[in-house]
Amino acid sequence: MRLAALCAVFMLMSPFSAFAQECDYGIEILVDGDEFESQDFKWRMRAMKIEGKSTNITGTAEIESGGNTVKSYKPWTSDSIAKQKTSNEYSPNLKPGDYEIIAEISVECDDTNKDNNVDKKEITIKGEAEKTDETKSSNNKKTEPIKAEEQDAEKTSLQSTIPKRNAASEPKIQQSSTNPKSAEEFDNVIELKAQNNNKAKETQAITSNTIQNTQNGVVYESSNERARGWIMVFLLTLSILLNIVLIWKR
Fold first, then answer.
1. Residue 140 structural domain
2. What's the pLDDT score for residue 228?
3. What's the domain count of the chain?
4. Bridge partner residues of 64 (DSSP)
5. 189 in any annotated domain
6. Are 99 and 135 in a shared domain?
7. How far apart (Å, rounded) are the C-alpha atoms in residues 212 and 205?
8. Which of 64, 117, 192, 199 sits at a 20 to 30 Å CA gap from 25?
9. What is the dihedral of CA 88, 107, 73, 129, to 10 degrees?
10. Residues 133 and 145 in one domain
């Protein structure tokens, strides 16, 4: 009875001991290069046993671009693996751009090194977008000289028209350029002219007054002289009369 009980316990524990057995499996992304044309890009993933016994494996993979998942794969789901296992070849036909492939596995044993359970690979897909960019750049290079020639032609036409316009307005421009005056200078000139005009008016008034005064003075002097003459005559006559009276009294 004891032997039968021990056998039963051993049989019950054997699956758990197998499940808890230590192992080490890794994953690897198989791709030839870093840059591809869209139609030429192909890849695979391979899981391999590094140490331990056979077990079951589950594998998944994703292709991401800018943090977004573009493609997803699941080649194995609890599939048995003895030494290694390789997925089918994938041709995702990606658009031009930068991508990252992320492959991951999980095993049904005690994996002692889980760092190699994930593999990443960055790739670049070349295609029509880059070719169109190249053609655009080449077209831009071709159009740049044409634009430069057009600009030169416009400059020459403008230069040819500018002298004609300047010829008509050349005297005015020369006058303004020879006598550049600011607003303040014009105001000063106007004030000086006004002052000169006032001075001229004053001088005219003074001269006219002096002429009138001189004329009046001449008239005044001639009347005084006449009065003096009459006074002298009056005095002479008075003295004569006095002398006559005195002589008569004697």
1. 128-172
2. 81
3. 2
4. 69, 100
5. no
6. no
7. 10
8. 64
9. -90
10. yes
Phi, psi at 18, each rounded to 5° = -70, -40
Q: Do 33 and 96 belong together in one domain? A: yes
Q: Which residue, 61, 62, 59, is CA-closest to 105? A: 59
Cα separation, 63 vs 71, in Å, equals: 5
The residue assigned the tokens 């005095």 is: 235
Work out whether strand 35-37 and strand 118-126 pair parallel, antiparallel, or are unpaired.
parallel
- 82-105: burial string, b at 16+ Cβ within 10 Å, e else: eeebebeebebebebbebebbbeb
> Taking Cα atoms as reference points, which of 25, 29, 30 lies closest to residue 49?
25
Amino acid 229: pLDDT: 82
Answer yes or no: do 102 and 113 share one domain: yes
- Helices (H) and strands (E) counted in the chain, each on its own, are 4, 9
Q: Which amino acid is at 211?
A: I
Mean pLDDT by 10 residues, the chain (250 residues): 56 53 95 94 97 96 96 97 96 96 97 96 83 55 56 64 48 45 54 63 56 48 74 88 84
Q: Are residues 70 and 99 in the same domain?
A: yes
Global model pTM greater than 0.70: no
Please report the pLDDT score of residue 52 as a whole number.
Answer: 94
Using alpha carbons only, give the angle 30, 31, 36 rounded to the nearest 5 degrees. Answer: 165
